[in-house]
Each structure stands twice: as C-alpha cells, then as structure tokens.
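User: Structure tokens for both sequences below?

Assistant:
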Amino acid sequence: MATIQDVADKAGVSIATVSHVLNNTRFVSDETRSVVLEAIQKLNYHPSAAARSLSSRKTQTIGMVISDITNIFFGRMIQGVLDVITPQDYNLILCTTGD
C-alpha cells in the first residue's frame, strides 16, 4: 500500500505539497498538481483513514444499533444508510441487541 511519502518521492515534491493537492488547502501550480495526481494514480494511493481521523479528530464513522439483523426492514434500512454515507467516505459500525 502506497504512502503519502511514496507519492511525494515519485512526484519529486514534499509531503506538504501532496497534502495541499489532496486537501486543496493552498495554491499549487497546475503543472505540480498534475504531477502529483499522476503519481497518486500510478501508485493507486488512498489516504489512510486512521491517519486522517487522528489529525482531524473526526472518525467519519456512524454507529447503528438494531434489534434483529435478519428482519428485512433492518436490512433495507442498513442498505439505505450505506447508500448515503459511503459516497461521503463514512464508515458504518453495526451492533445488534439480540432482542
């Protein structure tokens, strides 16, 4: 699994520059941005969710407690929640009460 350091090395830039491209936090020239994005694609880089959670103090995680996972109603509800949160890069933790 590629790291942000691997992307920086491949693109010939600093980790900070890669971070600025990923987060769109500062101006990065179009040429440098293209080089970084190409390195990201070639390395199949995906930011670490754990690292992002630590730095932002946000886990991007939603918890659900349901009574019966075998009930079709809950299955549809879970799928509906996943359909909404997955594109937003959120995770779901599911717990059943067994009632």
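Moving on to the next sequence.
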Amino acid sequence: MTGSTANASANPDGERQKAAFGTQVSAELYHDLRPGYPESTVDWMLGFPLDRLRVLDLGAGTGKMTHALLTRGHDVVAVEPSEGMREEFARRHPDVPMHHGIASSIPLQDASADAVLVAQAWHWVDEPKAADEIARVLRPGGPLGVVWNVRDTSVDWIGQINHAVGRSATGHSSEADPPFAPRLNEQFGPVEEYSVPNQHALPNAHAVADLASTWTYVQTADDPPALIQSVRDIAAGHAAEDGTVTTLDQLPLRPDLRGRTPYGAPQLDVPVRLNTNENPYQVPAEVTRAMADAVADVLPQLNRYPDRDHTRLRDALAGYLGHQLDRSQVWAANGSNEILQQLLQAFGGPDRVALGFTPAYSMHPIIAAGTGTSWVDGTREGNFDLSAELVAEQIRVIDPDVVFICSPNNPTGTSVGLDVVDAAYSACRGIVIVDEAYAEFARAGTPSALTLLPGRPRLVVSRTMSKAFALAGARVGYLAGDPGIVDAVQLVRLPYHLSAPTQAIALAALAHTHTMLGTVEALKRQRDRIVQLLPTFGLTPLPSDANFVLFGGLDDESATWQALVDRGVLVRDVGIAGHLRVSAGTEAEVSTFLAQLPEALAAPVESRST
C-alpha cells in the first residue's frame, strides 16, 4: 500500500462517492472484503512516538482507516457521504462521531482537526475545492494523508485480473494505478510518499470475485457479471487444491508478527545496481572450476546427510581468521543472519531484551522479533558515531541480555574503536555481538574485535562470505567466540543445517582466499572515489570502512532515489532523512552513478515519484 502526506500553512465528489458505495454493493460486503491499513502507515503519516491527535477520517466508508487510527490511540471524527456506509460505520464504531458530508463541504469547524486522512477515496473528490476545505478544517501545520491500497500486479494472477478489469473499465481511473500524489494548492507543503507491503487474505476465488464487485469500475463496466466471472476464473486458477486463496490475515499468525513486513531491498531490472552491497565481480574462473570439482565430489553422497558439525569448514575458517583461533571457537551457518538468529535463540527469546544502536543493520530487530526477543533502539551521536561512554550508559540503563554493535556499521560505513566494544562488554551482563560483515573492506589500521576475544567469554564476532568473498549466492556466515558460545548455538541449530554442496563451495573458496579477495582493493578504491567526489555535488559523504558510502545533503532522498532509478541507477534509501546509500561497484558502474547524479539532483520534484 502507499500513502502521501502534505502539510497545511482538501458536488461531484459526493455524488460519485454515493454512486460508488451506495446501492450496488452492500456496505457489509465492502467492509468484509476490502483490506485494512497497516499501523506503520498511520505512524509514518502522523508521527511516532505517538502523540494523541484528533484525526478527521474523510470519506471514512465503513471505518477501515478509523480502526487503524483507534488502534494507535488517536481520537477520530468521521465524514462520509453514503448512508449505507455511515450505517455500517456506526455499527462497528458506535463511539466515533460520524457526519454526513463530502470533501468539498466538510461539516466541521475551522482548525478543528490535527490531521486529515483520506483512505481509498481521493479519486472521488473535486481536488481544488477539497484542498481548500481540508486546509480550512486543519490546524496550521497539520498533515493531510492520502492513502491507497493497490494491487501488486507483479504477481502473475493479480496482473491478469488487473488487465481484465482495465480492458472493461468505462471511463473510471483504475484504483490499481491511482493518482498517488494529490494535486494541492499553495496552502500545502511538498508531498512526501511512503509505501509498504500489505497482505490481505481472502478465503477462496469467490471472495476474490466478490471483492472485485466492490470496485466501481467493475460496477460500471459494460457487462459486470461477465467481468466478475472472469475475475473468479483467474483467481480459481491460482487457488490451492482445496479452493482457498490464503494469505496472512486468514492464518493464525503470532499477534506480534501481524502488520510487519518482510525484509528486502528493491530488486529492479536496471543497468546499474548499487543498492545491496554485493561484490559486483563474478567468482574467478579458476575458483569456479575448483568449486565445481568439489561439489561433484559430494554429489554421489547426497543420499547421506552432510557433516553435521562441518568440521573441515570450521578448521578452514579458523585458519583464515588467525588470532590463534581453532575449530572449537568457530561456527558456520547459512549466512550471518542465521548465525545471529541462532545466537538470539540461545541467548535472547521471550522476556529477554536485545539492544542495538540505530541506525544499524535493519535485520537485527527483525531477527529479534522472529525469536521473540524484545528489541530496544539505542541512540548514536549526531554524526552517527558511538563513544564508549554513550554505549556504556545506555547498557547500564536498559540492562539488555544481548547487545549488537556493527563495525563497520551498516548503513553508515563507520567503524567503532575497540574501547567502545570493551566498554560495552564491561557494562553488559549478557553477550555482546560485534557484526563485522564488512571487515575486509576496512581502511588500514582499523582494528577488529577478534583481538578482544581472549578472556571475554561473552563476546562474539560475526562475519560473512557474502561480501568480500563474493559468495552472496552461497549463503555462508560464521562466528568466532568462546567455545561455550559454540556449544550454546548447537543447542538451537537445526540438524544438518549446512548442506554438503554449501560446505564444499565454501572450502573451495577458502582454499583460494588470495584470489577470492583480489577485488577488495579495487572496491575500496571506488568507495574512496565516491567519498572524494560527492562533495563536489554539494553532498556530505561519511568516511567508510565498508564497500558502500552513506551520503547526506539531500532535500528529498526519496525523489533523488527515484530520479536515479529513472536514469538506470539503483541505490538504497535506508530511511535516514536527507541520506542515501550507494554501494561501491565496478569502475564503470561508479562512473555511471557519478555521471547521472547531477541530473538526478536537478530533476524537477513534480516529475519524481516513488
């Protein structure tokens, strides 16, 4: 779903909305089938931590948005033109004031609302009149939020439905492609945009067809029954053998996971992808041959489980790390994320707390949630640095069971001194995890927490072969720590978790360490090139010990991100106002990024969208 907000210094809409929601579809059916709105959308539009606001739900329908607002503790007043919708709303929210009105004639006093939200209804309003009227009822500076649930047409069967409906529509704009950015007057500030995945469950193909029957452009098609049957047929082709079309809302999901969204960076088909910090260089041919031979050796034995304790791989990893480590101090898994998951399964969990220092790796709180571990966002200094004093004080106040420190930190690229790690360890009664996924890219003289392992049994260092070793597709991560840490994660690891081919590939890579790490210096040069040149564009890059650069100085990071995508370059919007992150790619990729950046920065705001 997607939303837009603008701040104030929002006839035909009422009649059209009545036609949409009045007689052809029951309000109860509409409410039962239409999706709701994630709480994260409300928080983004109205602010978090929460202030209790008086919010006008304009075009409230049956109260889907009102429900989300009430859940977040806001006071709501509703306006809706359709009698049937108002009756259904009153049945579901009897304590919420409901008024008969339209966007161009709102029956409320001036400056009586802290915020105005219009969910799934902006396409019905007379925009100039609605903008004036919304500005009248908003307090100065209050936000207007325009919210849409849209269909994900990248899913094949949903795309087929969209195509079928689009062919039959008669003049109405499709809600699958609504005008996300409202056209407002000078009383409002610039439009900001936000989108978040929102999954909605329907029990079967008939329900999908019934949902389609609530769409106005289906109701106004030349032959609505035939179109609805077409939607039913498409959905039935997707349904499971028992006829159900099941998504999350239909399942007994853990309450604490509801409303969450899966982790994932955008995967777009553009010429230059500099958003996921992958090594852009392919595995060298001599190493791929060695990997192929190693995998070929284990293929005949795939009828047997692999080495459960991956002893050869642990020996090789200990040898690579040095610092007099041995097999008993090393453990590997399917990516460093599984390593972190195992650590939280062993040392976190219900009634336990993990602390990280935001902004940092966004998977840390997600893994915490998945393991039932409470997560606390710690703070950094204004330049994103961490001092020993700041870290120790937060640990003393929060008293966490697990502390995460990223060094180099993702997304800032900055490293911490060993004094910070030592201070965290001394202040913490639990375990301290130093995430060193990007350690191989550190500048000369940057220390590793591996040097602190002796005498600190609660200290863990996690690493990965995804970045410097260019093995993101192999999924190999590992940790170094006290033998007791390794014993602990074996209590929670799944049996035979690391496949025989994976172990063979990783061993072959480690046997060719010098070759595999041969691109690291080239990537560091491109990283330093980015840091050196970005100030010439008026931007402020942070010094980086990773294979990426976080840079600030942007007026609208989302718009710049989109403008770069429009020019064939994908970088990462990491959610820090005024900042974007760019991975160090090949020389040609970085040159393209730098060449397209001036045009992206100068692109007119009105031509950009997210």
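User: Anything stand out in the second?

Assistant: Residues 587-602 form the longest helix (16 residues).
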